Amino acid sequence: MKISDLDLSRIPTHIAAVMDGNGRWAESRKLPRTEGHTAGEQSLMDVLEGADDLGVKWFTVFAFSTENWARPSEEVKFLLNFNEKILLERRDELNERNVRIRFIGRRNRQVPRRLIRRMEETENLTKGNTGLTFTIAFNYGGRAEIVDAVKRIIDEGMSAERINEKTISRHLYDPTIPDPDLVIRTSGEYRVSNFLLWEIAYSELIFSETLWPDFRREDLFTAVKEYQDRDRRYGGVSET
Ligand code: IPE
Ligand code: IPE
Ligand code: MG
Description:
Elements: E1 14-18, H1 22-27, H2 33-54, E2 58-65, H3 73-96, E3 100-104, H4 113-126, E4 133-140, H5 142-155, H6 165-170, E5 182-185, E6 204-207, H7 217-228
One 3-methylbut-3-enyl trihydrogen diphosphate binds next to strand 2.
């Protein structure tokens, strides 16, 4: 699939991706699981560039879930270091490409202070950029996000009768992010795994059999093509 095969007037504004299958990619090559995470960096950079070329304005990835702490401590340690390494190595080039980098997730004491500092530095470095907004969900859980939103609403002393859907939306980790139009999950797993629960109420979901380390921009374009063939009705009836 190429960009010229797509309807450029109907590019999704926000694409979110669950980058899954790194471990299986490595295991199938008799490599340690961590090699799959390393290989996934190429996919991420390629897909990000493809999204930017398409004119996608918001791109969000699931990098580490609130459940991923349950993995073997060696893998958790690797993922923490790896995410910091990618940030340090890639943020200048993304900054030059006018990409604004943001993070969503719990920035609590489970996350090493140094990594939190890197996140803050990166957000500050890129905050003035006007190109694609690249959001990294780190120590993120959709249920945790809703719980954290509810806590803040209560802390603000809001009365129950004033609370509506907009109230919840305004208290999410980054209320400026529009809901995803398209969510892609790789590796042939047909589940959401606690990603953006509130935000995906009306997103189009596309599942790819490709393992994340093999996923490239052409696969993104294929998903966008499928998205363009869908009929988004939002509970209504289609306009024909
Ligand atoms: C996704 O790949 C990366 C993270 C969850 C950090 P996995 O590590 O989940 O790979 P599989 O699903 O075990 O193959
Ligand atoms: C979701 O993938 C989390 C990330 C991609 C970061 P998982 O591999 O952790 O999800 P499950 O365990 O298959 O549901
Ligand atoms: Mg997985």
